[in-house]
Amino acid sequence: MRDHPKLIEASRNGVTSYPNEWTNHYLLGIGYEATGQRSEAITEYQKAVHLSEGNLDAAASLAHAYAEAGRNAEAEKILAGLLQRSKNTYVSPYLIATIYAGFHDNDRAFAFLERLTKKKRWTSAGISKRTCASTACAPTCASRVSFAGSSRTLSV
User: Which residues contact 70 (CB under 8 A, 6 or more apart)?
Assistant: First the structure.
Protein backbone atom coordinates (compact mmCIF):
# COMPACT_ATOMS: atom_id res chain seq x y z
CA MET A 1 0.00 0.00 0.00
CA ARG A 2 1.38 3.35 -0.97
CA ASP A 3 -1.52 5.54 0.13
CA HIS A 4 -0.33 6.06 3.67
CA PRO A 5 -2.87 8.78 4.57
CA LYS A 6 -5.66 6.32 3.75
CA LEU A 7 -3.89 3.64 5.77
CA ILE A 8 -3.75 6.03 8.72
CA GLU A 9 -7.42 6.86 8.36
CA ALA A 10 -8.50 3.22 8.10
CA SER A 11 -6.26 2.19 10.98
CA ARG A 12 -7.55 4.99 13.21
CA ASN A 13 -11.07 3.75 12.51
CA GLY A 14 -9.91 0.24 13.38
CA VAL A 15 -8.35 1.43 16.64
CA THR A 16 -11.56 3.27 17.52
CA SER A 17 -13.70 0.20 16.82
CA TYR A 18 -11.29 -2.42 18.18
CA PRO A 19 -8.80 -0.72 20.52
CA ASN A 20 -7.40 -4.02 21.81
CA GLU A 21 -6.65 -5.46 18.37
CA TRP A 22 -2.88 -5.16 17.95
CA THR A 23 -2.91 -5.23 14.14
CA ASN A 24 -4.78 -1.93 14.01
CA HIS A 25 -2.05 -0.26 16.09
CA TYR A 26 0.66 -1.94 14.02
CA LEU A 27 -0.81 -0.72 10.74
CA LEU A 28 -1.32 2.75 12.19
CA GLY A 29 2.36 2.73 13.17
CA ILE A 30 3.32 1.81 9.62
CA GLY A 31 1.27 4.71 8.27
CA TYR A 32 2.73 7.16 10.75
CA GLU A 33 6.28 6.04 10.13
CA ALA A 34 5.85 6.27 6.36
CA THR A 35 4.62 9.85 6.68
CA GLY A 36 7.46 10.91 8.96
CA GLN A 37 5.47 10.92 12.20
CA ARG A 38 8.05 8.93 14.17
CA SER A 39 6.89 9.62 17.72
CA GLU A 40 3.32 8.64 16.81
CA ALA A 41 4.63 5.52 15.06
CA ILE A 42 6.64 4.53 18.11
CA THR A 43 3.59 4.93 20.35
CA GLU A 44 1.47 2.72 18.09
CA TYR A 45 4.20 0.10 17.68
CA GLN A 46 4.60 -0.02 21.46
CA LYS A 47 0.87 -0.68 21.81
CA ALA A 48 1.05 -3.36 19.10
CA VAL A 49 3.93 -5.13 20.83
CA HIS A 50 2.13 -5.01 24.18
CA LEU A 51 -1.25 -6.15 22.86
CA SER A 52 0.27 -8.91 20.72
CA GLU A 53 2.43 -10.12 23.59
CA GLY A 54 5.59 -9.57 21.56
CA ASN A 55 4.72 -10.21 17.92
CA LEU A 56 8.04 -10.24 16.07
CA ASP A 57 6.89 -8.03 13.18
CA ALA A 58 5.64 -5.41 15.60
CA ALA A 59 8.82 -5.64 17.69
CA ALA A 60 11.07 -5.27 14.64
CA SER A 61 9.06 -2.30 13.43
CA LEU A 62 9.36 -0.70 16.85
CA ALA A 63 13.12 -1.28 16.84
CA HIS A 64 13.36 0.22 13.34
CA ALA A 65 11.45 3.30 14.43
CA TYR A 66 13.60 3.63 17.56
CA ALA A 67 16.77 3.42 15.45
CA GLU A 68 15.46 6.00 12.97
CA ALA A 69 14.63 8.29 15.89
CA GLY A 70 18.12 7.91 17.38
CA ARG A 71 16.88 5.87 20.32
CA ASN A 72 19.67 3.38 19.73
CA ALA A 73 19.77 1.71 23.14
CA GLU A 74 16.10 0.77 22.90
CA ALA A 75 16.51 -0.47 19.32
CA GLU A 76 19.63 -2.46 20.22
CA LYS A 77 17.82 -4.14 23.11
CA ILE A 78 15.09 -5.42 20.78
CA LEU A 79 17.66 -6.43 18.15
CA ALA A 80 19.66 -8.37 20.74
CA GLY A 81 16.49 -10.16 21.83
CA LEU A 82 15.65 -11.17 18.27
CA LEU A 83 19.20 -12.35 17.59
CA GLN A 84 19.15 -14.40 20.80
CA ARG A 85 15.77 -15.86 19.95
CA SER A 86 17.00 -16.77 16.45
CA LYS A 87 19.48 -19.20 18.03
CA ASN A 88 16.60 -21.41 19.21
CA THR A 89 13.78 -20.73 16.77
CA TYR A 90 13.28 -19.24 13.34
CA VAL A 91 13.30 -15.45 13.19
CA SER A 92 12.97 -14.06 9.69
CA PRO A 93 16.22 -12.45 8.55
CA TYR A 94 14.00 -9.80 6.96
CA LEU A 95 12.99 -8.57 10.41
CA ILE A 96 16.58 -8.28 11.54
CA ALA A 97 17.53 -6.56 8.27
CA THR A 98 14.75 -4.06 8.87
CA ILE A 99 16.30 -3.07 12.19
CA TYR A 100 19.77 -2.73 10.70
CA ALA A 101 18.26 -0.55 7.98
CA GLY A 102 16.90 1.70 10.73
CA PHE A 103 20.48 2.11 11.95
CA HIS A 104 21.51 2.82 8.32
CA ASP A 105 23.82 -0.20 8.54
CA ASN A 106 23.20 -1.32 4.98
CA ASP A 107 25.98 -3.92 4.95
CA ARG A 108 24.43 -5.87 7.81
CA ALA A 109 20.93 -5.35 6.45
CA PHE A 110 21.93 -6.83 3.10
CA ALA A 111 23.81 -9.67 4.81
CA PHE A 112 20.58 -10.73 6.51
CA LEU A 113 18.54 -10.30 3.33
CA GLU A 114 21.00 -12.52 1.49
CA ARG A 115 20.16 -15.25 3.99
CA LEU A 116 16.61 -15.11 2.67
CA THR A 117 17.73 -15.81 -0.88
CA LYS A 118 19.65 -18.85 0.31
CA LYS A 119 16.77 -20.25 2.37
CA LYS A 120 14.03 -19.16 -0.05
CA ARG A 121 11.82 -18.37 2.92
CA TRP A 122 9.51 -15.40 3.04
CA THR A 123 7.76 -16.13 6.30
CA SER A 124 7.56 -12.51 7.36
CA ALA A 125 5.41 -11.67 4.36
CA GLY A 126 3.70 -15.05 4.31
CA ILE A 127 4.52 -15.62 0.65
CA SER A 128 6.98 -17.75 -1.23
CA LYS A 129 9.36 -16.57 -3.90
CA ARG A 130 7.44 -18.54 -6.53
CA THR A 131 4.11 -17.00 -5.54
CA CYS A 132 5.66 -13.57 -5.40
CA ALA A 133 7.25 -13.82 -8.83
CA SER A 134 4.03 -15.02 -10.45
CA THR A 135 1.58 -12.48 -9.06
CA ALA A 136 0.98 -8.76 -9.12
CA CYS A 137 2.49 -8.46 -5.65
CA ALA A 138 6.05 -8.71 -7.03
CA PRO A 139 6.61 -4.94 -7.26
CA THR A 140 5.52 -4.40 -3.66
CA CYS A 141 7.08 -7.37 -1.89
CA ALA A 142 10.67 -8.11 -1.04
CA SER A 143 11.55 -9.46 -4.49
CA ARG A 144 13.73 -6.39 -5.01
CA VAL A 145 15.07 -4.64 -1.97
CA SER A 146 17.09 -1.48 -1.64
CA PHE A 147 17.81 0.87 1.23
CA ALA A 148 18.24 4.62 1.30
CA GLY A 149 21.86 5.55 0.89
CA SER A 150 22.76 2.27 -0.80
CA SER A 151 23.27 1.71 -4.49
CA ARG A 152 22.79 -2.06 -4.06
CA THR A 153 19.64 -4.03 -4.72
CA LEU A 154 18.94 -7.63 -3.92
CA SER A 155 16.91 -9.58 -6.43
CA VAL A 156 15.47 -12.96 -5.57
Answer: none
Q: What is the pLDDT of residues 1-39, one digit of tens each?
A: 579 999 999 999 999 999 999 999 999 999 999 999 999
The helix (run of H) or strand (run of E) holding residue 144 is strand 144-145
How far apart CA 3 and CA 87 sit, in angstroms, is: 37
Q: Give 1-91's CATH code, choosing from 3.40.630.30, 1.10.150.120, 1.25.40.10, 1.10.10.10.
A: 1.25.40.10
Q: What pTM does this model have?
A: 0.77
Distance CA 38, CA 32 (A): 7
Q: Which element (helix H / strand E) includes 155? A: strand 154-155
